[in-house]
Specification:
- This protein has 210 residues and is an all-alpha fold.
- Helices cover 72% and strands 0% of the residues.
- The protein has helices at 12-32, 39-46, 50-57, 60-87, 93-98, 100-113, 116-126, 130-156, 166-178, 180-183, 193-204.
- The longest helix has 28 residues, at 60-87.
- The mean pLDDT is 86.
Length: 210
């Protein structure tokens, strides 16, 4: 089993230092990719010594890994909270139908929190990096757990179709959401995000009594 080595400081000052460095690395990666992550430049930008950066992250690869994981985990945490808050307000099929526009807004925000291209980059980079893959897998499992809880709430309310297991439904929905990544490599990008989201909701309706 892969050991995940990510900075987990306990003191508030150290946490602030780690967050500052990760934020700088994320900005650099967003602007010009991994090649833009230079420890010397990040040290100059943040005022954090090179020694301290290496102490917390081990090496440049450790910093890049931490930036990817932080980015993915942050969006996952926000997704889970929104899903749980939303599902708590749904008690009937009628409620679900009435929340169609709200569900569309959720999908739009889902991609806004972490754009499709960034999700694709994180997942793509995880394939050849065992430690990154293990850390991303942990975050994704938390997202699946959270969505499974949402599906269980729908099942308890008699909304999810009886023959469908809540976790299977959660995995199918996540597959639909992540499927948007594939459109980034499609030469014909005529399908708008709104069209995609409406199609996702149409597919989701097949899982529930709608």
């Amino acid at each position: 089993m892969t050991t995940i080595q990510l900075p987990q400081p306990k003191q508030s000052r150290a946490k602030e230092t780690v967050a500052l460095v990760i934020d700088a690395a994320r900005r650099a990666m967003r602007a010009s990719g991994e090649s833009a992550v230079r420890v010397q430049e990040i040290s100059s930008e943040t005022g954090v010594s090179i020694g301290s950066i290496y102490h917390h992250f081990g090496d440049r690869e450790g910093l890049i890994r931490a930036a990817y994981v932080h980015q993915f985990s942050e969006s996952v945490a926000a997704d889970i909270e929104r899903l749980k808050t939303w599902s708590a307000t749904i008690s009937s099929v009628q409620d679900l139908r009435a929340r169609y526009e709200e569900m569309l807004a959720f999908l739009a925000n889902y991609y806004q929190m972490m754009p499709v291209a960034e999700r694709a980059t994180v997942i793509g980079n995880a394939v050849s990096r065992p430690e990154l893959r293990a850390a991303i897998a942990e975050s994704h499992t938390r997202l699946t757990d959270g969505l499974t809880e949402v599906m269980q709430n729908l099942a308890d309310a008699g909304i999810l179709k009886e023959h469908i297991a809540p976790r299977a439904a959660a995995q199918v929905v996540l597959g639909l959401l992540h499927g948007r990544v594939l459109t980034e490599i499609d030469n014909d990008n005529s399908v708008s995000l709104e069209q995609w989201n409406r199609t996702v909701l149409s597919a989701f309706s097949g899982l529930v009594h709608y």
